[in-house]
């Protein structure tokens, strides 16, 4: 039995507000600044990011299995509890070791969350016989998340100027995460889709192995997973370096006469993130319209080239706040157009019963790539920001060229 239209719209709005609340991470625009002010080098920040991604890597597929077999709602309850514990530890932390413990709990929250909520949206669309609306609905709900990020960025400016220390942003973030926990409780129980009433370690391991075999025994699924995860990893590895870039600049224009150089840097960071997230929200909501320009495959392929070219430009103008803003703005736009298209392609390609697991495999592969390269990227950033963006940009262009050669070779073999 289908839900009536009013109830259907209400549930879509709930999906959206889940993302909005989840993205009220008021500390996020100042995360690297928080670490460096606590005495950490960018190399140590890279190590923390690597620890985060290793934990996500280890728990990503098991979390997808738990979601598919033992209940998606149940898993999200656990995920938000992990987040809240991590925020508390970050607040009290003063050393690399304590931050490492906090990042472990944060990573557990990420591993238990990623893929699960997307799978719930897909299940809902299947239940409501709306299988052709995946990219549109997911893009819409993702736009809520980005609106939440916009709100977060603007409000965080006020918080960071008037709170005693940046670390208080972690305590404030507990409030929206608690609200999100209650929101998930209000989801229909049909979305829990619990398949087993008792935990079986043997079945758990069996399903894990089956998920990995499925992912890497179907060449089309494997290609999509590698394409999605490598782009995500590249973006995830460099996105936060906008913070030290702006802090290192000699800002020529001050917004408020009463603020000093450091305070103005924080204001600029918050404002830039707010604009980026607002434009990204629009891009995500309208991502499905981009398909009019060509096949999704060609579009996501071209974004390797565009992103790489932008980073090469940035490597030559790291002292220009205008160039930094424009480059990161377009990187976020590309990501938020690309992501819904990739999720739809994955959702339409894999078996319905394995969606959460495959999305977790994708996130796990992303984590592995970030875990390997994050310390190296942090080390390079300590030496030269320009060199960092030059190397990443060149790598993205190389991937684009390799993919073109591979596609043309495949087409010539099939013809």
Radius of gyration: 21 Å
Strand-and-helix sequence, N→C? HHHHHHHHHHHHHHHH
**If you average the pLDDT, what whole number results?**
82
Main beta-sheet annotation = none
CATH architectural arrangement: Up-down Bundle
CATH topology: Growth Hormone, Chain: A
**Helical percentage:** over 70%
Number of separate domains: 1
Distance between the termini: 47 Å
- Assign the structural class, choosing from mainly alpha, mainly beta, alpha/beta, alpha+beta, or little secondary structure: mainly alpha
What percentage of amino acids are in beta strands? under 5%
C-alpha geometry: globular
- Within CATH, the superfamily carries the name MFS general substrate transporter like domains
- Annotation field: number of helices: 16
Task: Assign the CATH class.
Answer: Mainly Alpha
Number of strands: 0
Give unreliable regions as ranges: none
Account of the protein in words:
The protein has helices spanning 5-22, 31-37, 42-70, 72-92, 96-113, 116-127, 134-162, 168-185, 201-217, 219-238, 242-248, 261-285, 296-316, 321-349, 355-383, 385-414. It is mainly α and 415 residues long. It has a single domain (5-187, 199-414), classed as Growth Hormone, Chain: A.
Keywords summarizing the entry:
Growth Hormone, Chain: A, mainly alpha, 415 residues, 16 helices
Which secondary structure elements does this structure contain, and how are they paired or packed?
Layout: H1 5-22, H2 31-37, H3 42-70, H4 72-92, H5 96-113, H6 116-127, H7 134-162, H8 168-185, H9 201-217, H10 219-238, H11 242-248, H12 261-285, H13 296-316, H14 321-349, H15 355-383, H16 385-414
């Amino acid at each position: 039995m289908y839900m009536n239209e009013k109830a259907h719209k209400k549930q879509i709005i709930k999906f959206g507000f889940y993302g909005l609340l989840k993205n009220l991470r008021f500390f996020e625009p100042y995360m690297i600044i928080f670490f460096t002010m606590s005495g950490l080098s960018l190399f140590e920040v890279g190590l923390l990011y690597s620890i985060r991604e290793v934990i996500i890597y280890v728990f990503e597929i098991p979390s997808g299995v738990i979601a598919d077999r033992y209940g998606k709602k149940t898993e999200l309850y656990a995920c938000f509890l992990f987040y809240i514990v991590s925020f508390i530890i970050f607040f009290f932390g003063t050393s690399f070791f304590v931050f490492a413990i906090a990042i472990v709990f944060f990573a557990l929250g990420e591993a238990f969350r990623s893929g699960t909520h997307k799978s719930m949206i897909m299940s809902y669309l299947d239940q409501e016989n709306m299988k052709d609306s995946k990219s549109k609905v997911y893009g819409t709900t993702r736009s809520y998340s980005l609106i939440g990020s916009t709100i977060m960025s603007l409000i965080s400016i006020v918080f960071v100027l008037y709170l005693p220390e940046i670390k208080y942003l972690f305590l404030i973030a507990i409030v929206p995460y608690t609200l999100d926990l209650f929101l998930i409780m209000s989801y229909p129980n049909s979305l829990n889709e619990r398949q087993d009433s008792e935990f079986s370690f043997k079945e758990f391991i069996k399903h894990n192995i089956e998920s990995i075999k499925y992912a890497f025994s179907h060449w089309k699924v494997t290609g999509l997973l590698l394409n999605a995860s490598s782009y995500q990893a590249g973006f995830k590895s460099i996105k936060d370096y906008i913070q030290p870039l702006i802090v290192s600049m000699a800002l020529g224009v001050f917004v408020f006469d009463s603020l000093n150089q450091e305070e103005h840097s924080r204001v600029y960071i918050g404002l830039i993130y707010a604009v980026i997230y607002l434009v990204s929200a629009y891009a995500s909501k309208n991502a499905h319209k981009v398909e009019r320009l060509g096949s999704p495959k060609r579009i996501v392929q071209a974004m390797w080239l565009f992103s790489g070219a932008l980073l090469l430009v940035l490597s030559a103008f790291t002292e220009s706040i205008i160039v930094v803003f424009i480059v990161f703005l377009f990187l976020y736009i590309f990501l938020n157009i690309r992501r819904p298209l990739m999720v739809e392609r994955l959702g339409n390609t894999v078996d319905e019963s394995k969606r959460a697991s495959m999305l977790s495999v994708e996130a796990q592969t992303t984590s592995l790539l970030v875990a390997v390269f994050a310390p190296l990227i942090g080390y390079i950033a300590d030496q030269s920001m320009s060199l960092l963006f030059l190397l990443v940009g060149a790598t993205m262009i190389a991937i684009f060229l390799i993919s073109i050669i591979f596609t043309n070779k495949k087409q010539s073999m099939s013809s």
